[in-house]
Amino acid sequence: MCAFLKKNMSVHVQNTRMTTAKLRLMKAHGEKIAMLTSYDFTLASLVDEAGVEMILVGDSASNVVCGNQYTLPITVDEMIFLTKGVVRAAQHALVVCDMPFGSYQVSEEEAVRNAIKIMKESGCDAVKLEGGEEILPAIRHMIQAGVPVMGHLGLTPQSVNQFGGYGLRAKEEAEAEKLLRDAKLLDEAGCFSIVLEKIPAELAAKVTKAVNCPVIGIGAGNGCDGQVLVLHDALGLNQGFKPKFLRQFAHLAEEVKAAVGEYVQAVKDQSFPNAEESY
Ligand code: KIV
Question: What CATH class is the domain 3-248?
């Protein structure tokens, strides 16, 4: 075991901010990595205080924040706007911003330009993008330019129209082999981490063992180095969304509706504001 880890039982309780180097040490140490999405200052502050190692400003903001059906419409400028608030909130967690659909597929130059724009304007620590071998040249250029890159394989929601839905990926041998190959290529190219979404647990565990960088799963079983969930799903705010992989750690939709209902009632019956709540 390295000296750093000998001295420190938990990498997270280290004083300063999470770094990509510390995440690698966590993998080496077998300490699991917790990641959640956030899209605004207030919730990101709570998520950061509660102790996650990474916050993802996911392009799931397109669904969760903007109400779109897919992640595809969100733009680079919209992602930057949201990420700025999260960066202001994060005292410890490493902040990763998703590169939206269309911002890295056209050319390597455009990918690097957009990645640098996102990092400079939002202040995030790293970017995430979806895909394997097809986007490897763009990933290599970004890493050469000094941009820390997180990969994303398996169910990649920006390709929903190609997949024809959000079903389990890599069930068949050919797709599973390609996914394993892609993960090794991303790892060799220098990605600091890889997200695996909605693939069989056995395959995810195999990929996790095969690569050096930390692998973060969502719907990929518990053999990964860490887990990520969309915050609104984990808090039970996203009504009606309950895939098999999701655990709701709270049921805030009911609590929010009950609180708002009480507020409406108090306004109508004039019990709010009372004398103590007035100047
Ligand atoms: O956009 C997002 O929230 C994501 C996670 C589901 C990994 O990419």
Answer: alpha beta
- Nearest 5°: phi and psi at 155? -75, 110
Using CA positions, which residue lies closest to atom 1 of ligand 1?
58
Give residue-wise pLDDT tens across range 179-222: 999 999 999 999 999 999 999 999 999 999 999 999 999 999 99
Burial class (CB in 10 A: 0-12, 13-18, 19+), 37: buried
The number of the ligand 1 atom at minimal distance from the alpha carbon of 59 is: 1
Tallying the residues shown for the chain, one arrives at 279
* Residues 154, 178: Cα–Cα separation, whole Å: 10
Report residue 59 as tokens: 């392009």
Q: Quickly state the pLDDT bin for 99 (edges 50, 70, 90).
A: very high
Report which ligand 1 atom has the smallest distance to the Cα of 195. 7
- pLDDT confidence of 240, banded at 50, 70, 90? confident
User: Residue of the nearest CA to atom 8 in ligand 1?
Assistant: 58
| Chain region(s) in the chain for CATH 3.20.20.60 | 3-248
